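Explain this protein:
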Amino acid sequence: MHERLGLRVRFALFFGALALGGTVLLGGALWFGHARAGGPADGYVIAGVLAGCGLLGLAAWVGLLFDSNVARPIQALASDLQTRARVDIAADIDEAPARYLGALAPAANAIHDALAATREAQDRAVAERTAALNREKAMFEALLRDLAEGVVVATPDHRIMLYNRAALGLLGDLGLDRPLTAFLRPEPLTHALDRMGARAARGEAEAERFLAATDSGERFLMARVSPVAVEGQRVGYVLIFHDATEDLEAHAELDHLFNTMLEAVRRPTAAIGALFDAIESDPDMAGEVRSAFFAQLRSEQAMLVDRMNQVADRYGVATTRRWPMPAVASDDIFDALTARLPEDLRFEGGRQFVRCDGFAISELLGRVIEGLRADGRRGGFVLRAVPEGREVCLELHWTGAPVSDGQIDRWLETPLSAGYGEYLGRDALEGHGTELWAEPTETGHRLVLPLVAAAAPVLTPADPRPEFYDFSLPRAAAGTLADRPLSGLSYVVFDTETTGLAPRQGDEIVQIAGLRIVNGRILRGEVFNTLVNPGRHIPASSTAVHGIDDAMVRGVPDVVSVGRRFHAFCEGAVLVAHNAAFDMAFLKMKEDRLGLRFDHPVLCTVLLSAALYPHAEDHTLDALACRFGVRLDPEHRHTALGDALATAEVFRHMLDELQATGVRTLGEAMARANEMHRIRRAQSY
């Protein structure tokens, strides 16, 4: 029976028994005294009642003091030690509540320090043994991240295990353990996988190629898929792809241009042929008639030339689109030229950015400079980049003899470089949709090469997402989510900031943020964080809490747009929040407007804390952060993302605690949380 009674209950029973026994002994003593002394019993009864009440009160008071200063601190110390035995927490145990327990609290901290030292030694040993593996991992990550082609590795049931930066740019907001079919049309992929499986059954292990489209249909991708097999069993597949949208559009446009050219040429050439036949069939044709025929010939020829020029212009535009045109700094081009042709060549002016093939332009200008220098009649070469509206003119100035258009044309009619095959300098100009010409200046002469101006490229962090692969994703479990283990689930931990506390009275969301936990890892790179236009005034009292005012939400998306994006972000995940009922109420109120249902399983860290630590009086986020040694940045407290991140750190520790106490599935965790629902009214949040 004593194993079923808690420490505080046993102490209460002890003091209750002490008070009851003392009262019985006191009553027996008074009865014995009265029996020996005789006389009226009223005085003995009054004395007994007063003494008994006093004894009961004294026992209750001492018992309460004992409960507050001994029993509860002992329970708290035991809970803290159990937590540290299960979870790696760096923060020391708070000794203040156990100040009357003598050396017990310092001894508990000594155990904690010894455990921390042991874990630290183990971590050092593991770190030393995995240093080489980490170096290989870093090289793998750098290589994968900077590949120009998109790469995705997925499980057989299409959950993403890996993606790189190019895939992120092509497919959108990818995430680990999210379904690839949410970003890519599934039919072509499924057919390619079926073909790959059929070929594998015949002993062929080649990649399957196919054309796919993004889920929105905005982009077409040329892709190839290969199996990933371990010991003969397929455990996933690798998808490599690049954007083929412009290639397909250019191919279609070139086909259209070819057909247009045929139609444009057919009628004038037929008419010209007919006119020649008519002239040749009548040698004695009158002069006026012959002149009319020749006038018609000139008209048809002019029409043919005009239509050919139109097609040529459209062809030039189409081929320009296919030429690789990144943003290039002008001084990078000039540096390449001065390194190649150092004598008597310098550049002046500031940096400009142009959209061009930097190598092709450098080769073309280098060829021209070599031609200008060849006869020794020119010198003082200066390079400049001059912005002019939407263009930047690369200018080459010199003193000495001029240059003719014929000389420039001869320099442009030679192959540009061995690396470009038969492409000429003239082809490079046409590919860039520009021209090169010479003209005199006040001090000499210059060559002018206009190129399309470009904005300075925005430098992005080397690794925009710190977690972009996880090859240890658990296999998809059969059955409902409730039967799946907590360790095999994906979670979205989220928080909202609002105009007030009453969603049913018109309060609205002004910010929502969430981040994902996959395979026990907080994915700090897969974050949803946005302001929301509430469509109403934000009270000053609310702004004082979260710092968001009317000016900050002016022009940002409304709750319908943000809510749909957040719903997609949460697909297939369990929702987690601190005091989840509050945040979910705001989302549930908007379901009809969104046309979507937030029917995800929900876990609340308040209720889980009450289930794990029933002796604790405080289940606020600050209290839980203190318990688990989670640092809350004051600047980010009461921001949606800051609170979501703190809740995620707390919840990750709670997962270990829940499994250590025998709660292993989602259904069991939800049942424990529901049992504690009644505690919410007695706790502060």
User: Anything to note?
Assistant: Residues 42-86 form the longest helix (45 residues). The CA atoms of residues 268 and 303 lie 7 Å apart. The mean pLDDT is 82.
